Amino acid sequence: MAVFERSPRSGNISAGTGTGTGTGTLPRARWLLLGAVAGATAGSVLAGATSGLASYFARQVLTPVREHVQDLEILAVVGTWPEQEIILPATLDTTAPGVYSVYFDGGRGVARVGEVTSYSPREGTVQRTVEQVYTGDLAAATRGWWGGAAYPDPAAVGLANEEVQIEVDGGTAPAWLIRAESEASTWAIMVHGRGASRAEGVRAVRAIRELGLTSLLISYRNDGEAPSAPDRRYGLGMTEWRDVEAAIRFALANGAQDVVLVGWSMGGAISLQAADQSLYRSRIRALVLDAPVIDWTDVLAHQARLNRIPDAVGQFSQWLISNKAGRLLTGLAAPLDLKMMNWVARADELRVPTLIVHSENDDFVPYGPSAALAEKNPLVTFERFSGAGHTREWNVDPERWERVVASFLSRVLGRS
Fold first, then answer.
1. Which end of the chain is less packed: N or C, by CB atoms within 10 Å?
2. Closest CA to 365 of 238, 261, 268
3. What keywords would UniProt list here (predicted)?
4. Which one, of 410, 380, 395, 358, lies nearest residue 208 by Cα?
């Protein structure tokens, strides 16, 4: 899933009070002194707890996902291949229409599941078709996680590809190169989201290829395939864009004249920074952003609310992320400029034709900033979806997603 994993829910932090008994009567001045000491102690405890929770939340946002939580119970797998179905607990994810992946056995196994065949609200279960088991023994699986990357690699959609290595800071980053049928002067560089992999972009490749574009599905720092950053922390787009710049450099060195950046979730934030800061920004013809992070302040506040973190603690975590004094607690090599990543405030500085596809039901990255950016900048086209979770617009309605993307890119690139 190209989304944030929820942090453990934290209860309210409160300073306890105690009562005691003593002999005699203390002078009023001494009571005031004791009260002041107790208040200062309680205040220190509360401040320390607030600081600890804020730094914990900040680290959760900034620390790369190494292991996915296997929070999906696999109740049963019935039938035999190729007529196999899977029974799962009924949730907003598992009951949504479309095609998805179930990862199991710690991610070593992956299966593609299709439409719902039966749904029992009374029992709280849903049954879906199993379209393909790519690796692992699904019948033996008991737990896993749900994902929107419907295909594990380009071969799963019948597309020939080459594994290439892109020179980045600290070494080389692997990428899939999927060439157009004929020589292409425009390449599409696919930028996955936080906690996801380059497989996220496979969903988009067929529609992009039909436009005559070559696709490059990249990895970037801290995603588990590319070299890690020295501080092993996400830059939320402020550092990762350099790996996109390296991918653009690779494309230009191998026949491309210009590029389109296609980004999901944090990959959208990365793409926006590349379009703003890269030496090759003049070669970026368009941006296609799916459920992008347009304003990190808004997303961090939303994530804090999801995790029941008090507003003051959430705001302090933002301060830790964006100030030098917070580096010791966050682990960042340098603070991140959250204002520079607020594209609603910087709307007039975005000069690249941009398509934003975003669901109004996105529960991790609210769509409000996407809509606001489109209202403020005429270069931005906003396509609102409904009924889709975070980065699941294609899954819910692939025909519409591909039609919208094709229409936008055809117009921008001057394709018939």
1. C
2. 268
3. Hydrolase, Membrane, Transmembrane, Transmembrane helix
4. 410
Contact status, residue 106 vs residue 402, Cβ threshold 8 Å: no
Cβ atoms 191, 237 nearer than 8 A: no
> 229, 221 in Cβ contact below 8 A?
yes
The per-residue pLDDT for 8 is: 29
C-alpha span between 64 and 413 (Å, rounded): 35
Range 370-383 average pLDDT: 98
Q: What is the pTM of this model?
A: 0.88
In one-letter notation, the amino acid at residue 8 is P
Residue 382 corresponds to which tokens in the numbers above?
């906003």
Which pLDDT band holds residue 20 (cuts at 50, 70, 90)?
very low
**Residue 134 confidence (pLDDT):** 96
In three-state secondary structure terms, 405 is: helix
Distance CA 322, CA 100 (A): 36
Superfamily of domain 154-295+342-413: Alpha/Beta hydrolase fold, catalytic domain (3.40.50.1820)
Alpha carbon distance, N-terminus to C-terminus of the chain: 34
Section 108-112 average pLDDT:
97
Q: What DSSP letter does each residue of 301-342 carry, written as one string?
A: HHHHHHTT--HHHHHHHHHHHHSGGGHHHH--SS---TGGGB
Choose the CATH number for 72-147 among 2.40.30, 3.10.100, 3.40.50, 1.20.58: 2.40.30
User: Count of CB atoms within 10 A of residue 165's CB?
Assistant: 11
